[in-house]
């Protein structure tokens, strides 16, 4: 069945979603892998695998355009080349599972990127054979994902609160008369705590009980952080919910105050929670107490951007459809009267006027053996898949904060 593809390369993991062209407008998750590459001594790249006999790199997607390259053993690779390699691998994996090429691909990028960084990523993607691709800002993708399920009228505004494992951002977008989205305001968090920092704060509470020689599982802290009941037990130590909230309250207040400043005088119709860090209920509760609108989140908010990218790619090919009736969903959780949580949704068609599209070619011409012609090609002979093939996603990474 013909489909389009959205790829969201986060700091921790990369998520791919597909949207069927002759089916429902909603997207489905196709693949989730760690956002890491490893160069082996044999000159091959692998995705998601970490081996002691190789050189690995992660966190490169946010450094696209940085003049300082990554050092992988004998090779130095710019961040955009590593990002393009990862995207190429993801596309190839989805093609293998779907049995055909996607008709179009949309890839996310931070809203603060300018023409230079977008151009660097476009060039790197073309170098690995990915030609028909649209680059879309992350808050636009989150808004498009929301619009699948809830009608967004022209001139309506949506606020996007994004909290992943290593990054925080706040954005405001407005629906245009052509039913796309325009960026009104955007703030990238610099000195703000993100998901991994909250894991460390929880681990610190446990370590304070165990003493300096006690062992604390960070993975256990990550899981417990998002599933707090009255209390949790980590490494044999019980931590109460109120104790944890008291520990992270200054960090949460800092995030929320920055978000409120980003809103300025705009009164949004809704706040969309994006990123695995938003699974902590304290985030939604703090926002609900600070804004006079609905606070909405999907059951898996770390997937919102990837799904919105797939919807955006569909819009690029087919254009806006007749405004549908709101999408019915059973994922409704009432946290309090001022805060109704349910899945969010879509993105506007992001046209990049700074770049001219390449000559017409097949939608995506991807071969795992045809790597970029520059320094990467000199040392690689194959980009081999990692993990289990055939499964829709790897459950080992479904509990990570993502992004």
Automatic annotation (TrEMBL):
Matches recorded under InterPro entries: ATPase_NBD
Domain of life: Bacteria
SUPFAM superfamilies tied to this protein: Actin-like ATPase domain
Renumbered residue ranges of the record's region Disordered: 345-403
Protein name as annotated: Hsp70 family protein
């Amino acid at each position: 069945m013909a489909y389009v593809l959205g790829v969201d390369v986060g700091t921790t993991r990369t998520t791919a979603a597909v949207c069927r062209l002759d089916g429902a407008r909603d997207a489905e998750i196709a693949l989730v892998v760690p956002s890491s590459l490893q160069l082996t001594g044999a000159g091959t790249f692998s995705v998601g695998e970490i081996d002691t006999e190789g050189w690995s790199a992660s966190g490169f997607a946010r450094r696209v355009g940085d003049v300082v390259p990554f050092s992988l053993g004998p090779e130095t690779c710019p961040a955009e080349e590593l990002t393009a390699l990862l995207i190429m691998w993801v596309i190839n994996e989805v093609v293998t599972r779907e049995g055909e090429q996607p008709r179009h691909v949309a890839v996310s990028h931070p809203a603060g990127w300018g023409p230079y960084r977008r151009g660097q990523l476009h060039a790197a993607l073309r170098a690995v054979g990915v030609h028909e691709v649209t680059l879309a800002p992350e808050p636009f993708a989150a808004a498009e994902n929301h619009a699948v399920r809830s009608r967004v009228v022209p001139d309506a505004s949506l606020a996007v609160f994004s909290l992943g494992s290593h990054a925080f951002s706040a954005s405001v977008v407005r629906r245009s008369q052509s039913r796309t989205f325009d960026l009104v305001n955007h703030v990238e968090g610099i000195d703000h705590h993100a998901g991994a920092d909250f894991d460390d704060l929880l681990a610190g509470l446990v370590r304070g009980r165990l003493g300096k020689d006690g062992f604390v599982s960070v993975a256990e802290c990550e899981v417990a952080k998002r599933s707090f009941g009255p209390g949790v037990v980590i490494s044999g130590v019980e931590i109460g919910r109120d104790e944890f909230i008291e520990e992270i309250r200054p960090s949460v207040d800092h995030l929320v105050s920055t978000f409120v400043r980003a809103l300025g005088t705009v009164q949004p119709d809704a706040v969309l929670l994006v990123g695995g860090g938003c699974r902590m209920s304290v985030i939604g509760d703090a926002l609900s107490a600070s804004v006079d609108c609905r606070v909405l989140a999907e059951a898996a908010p770390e997937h919102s951007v990837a799904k919105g990218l797939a919807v955006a790619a569909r819009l690029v090919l087919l254009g806006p459809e007749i405004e549908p009736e709101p999408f019915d969903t059973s994922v409704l959780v009432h946290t309090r009267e001022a805060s109704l949580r349910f899945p969010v949704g879509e993105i506007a068609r992001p046209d990049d006027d700074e770049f001219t599209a390449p000559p017409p070619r097949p939608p995506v011409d991807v071969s795992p053996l045809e790597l970029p012609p520059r320094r990467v090609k000199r040392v690689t002979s194959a980009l081999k898949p990692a993990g289990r093939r055939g499964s829709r996603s790897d459950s080992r990474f479904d509990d990570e904060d993502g992004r």
